[in-house]
User: Fold this.
Amino acid sequence: MHIPVVKHSLKYNPSFDGIRGIAILGVLLFHIWPEYFKYGYLGVDLFFVLSGYLITNIIYSKCENNSFSFKEFYRNRIRRIFPAVIIVLVVTLILGYVFLLPLEYKDLGHHVKSSAYFYENFRLLKEVGYWDKAAQLKPLLHFWSLSVEEQFYIVWPLLIVAICRLRLNLVYSLFALFLFSLVLKFSLNIDQFYHPLARFWELILGAVLFALSRKYKYEILRNNKILSFYPLVFLGLISFPLYLWHYVIISFMYILGINVQLYGWVIIAVSVILAFIVYRYVEIYARSQTSYKFASVLFAVMLSVGLAGHYIYMHNGLPKRSNLIHNSDWEKQFIREPSKNAEGLKIVKSVLGYVPKNNYIKATSYDLTKKYILIMGDSHAHTSYPGFAEEFKKYGYETLLLANSSCPPYPGGAMGRDLKEAKICQQKIESQYEFIKKFKDHIEKIIFLTRGPKYMYGLGYGMIDGGNNEPYLKNKLITYFVDKKNWHQKEQFLANIEKLFKLFNNSKIKLYYVIENPELGFSPQNCIERPFGLSKRECKLPLSAYLKRSGEYREFVFNLAKKYKNVTILDPKGLYCDSNYCYAVKNGKMLYADDDHHSVDGSVMQAKYFIKKIMN
Assistant:
């Protein structure tokens, strides 16, 4: 089946669409079967380089002929990008209206707005922390790359036109900009995935390739037989709407608890059909329209879509929808607790003289005449705090939370994605122990909660937590950056647990170490019934699976505790598991907020389960 080719600003070369076909195929396969196509994500990088090549070619060629117009350039961008984006965002809003819970729909509204206004990458920058919803549950996550490209298109035409009109050497100028973009990427303290300044170098690399091909009169991509193979060209022609559709479908399948890998080829087929329809009947028409009025209408529609998303966000996900099957007690378990409060900040500042960089700082009161129990750890400490704070009040204790995100406070156990981040983590940990030293007369007990197997193996549990990927440590111990040859994450992580036990063994402060609760491997939101009977699943995992995952970690901790008498191990297995299964729901209560963190009800049940052992 041959489909028409849209009118291009440049002479059409099918090999470029062949490259697009390879890129989108890699992305599709990676998002469906990441364990088998683990480098498919490089398709996005390939898109960036190709876009930089083509857009620079268009701008510079027209500028040389004195025919470049900023007005025309942005009109072309609008008619190229906006139609498919509008359709996908509107359909996503409709699917969300039908299937999503109010909090989920509220979140989707936020992302629709940032996607429609092309700053989704900056939205995601605020959500990449450890205590965030899984990537698979964000239907518009993939819009980050489109946002980066559109941000690039704001500044790039200005630079290319300046180079052209000032008659600067194109190769030297673009190569200088390429080097400058690399310096920014590696010298600034920015997120290396979503931030545009960490990605612009890829687009500029494409521009450099164009400049070299022009200087040496060498066509980098001639009409290559392999790249012109029609199935690849076909995928390349529909690659833009295909990229937009596929992840929306994948994400909603995850949300509804449908096995993505099992239905992978169905996802590809449906995505290709939808992409073809948009390309053939919308994109070709839109790109044939030269009217600025047409572009203005598209611009106004996009603004309206963003406003619709904002409205949904401001109205809390439209909770009064008649199609919803409500379970309000469960739904509220997915609300995130605030990370800090005034009482906690006041105590910490009064003791240290400054407010440290710790992510979670909370307290039940500011009363230095009372005894405190300190909740310490990573994001698991944060989600466990509400229950412990409630229970300890009954025994006359105040509760203080001092914890970090993705930075477990083991002595010498700083982690990070790079050395700079690991050093920041180290500062957080040092401030925690400085606080304990200065506040020790007020602290009677410390409850220590962090993840275990994930820090040991660098591998999440289940598809929802990246468990189908090869082991990859997002946060490496600081020793990795100091001495890579002698670095062993598992051994050194376990050694840091022993350092913690040893530190408190002769302390007046009693240490309670909480073994990590079972990781579900699925989203607990799948336990809630959706319209048409979708997504209600048995909210449990086999006990054998939990013990296989955590067995080495559990055995090490229990054996280690025999050496240190001032350390008590709190084992949650009996709370979550019977002789056959571990459960996400117990006594009608949702225990989890995501695949491994507690809900508020879960934190209360955990505290009640441990309270007698802690207070005895």
The chain has two domains: 14-318, 338-518+550-574+607-615. The chain has 22 helices and twelve strands.
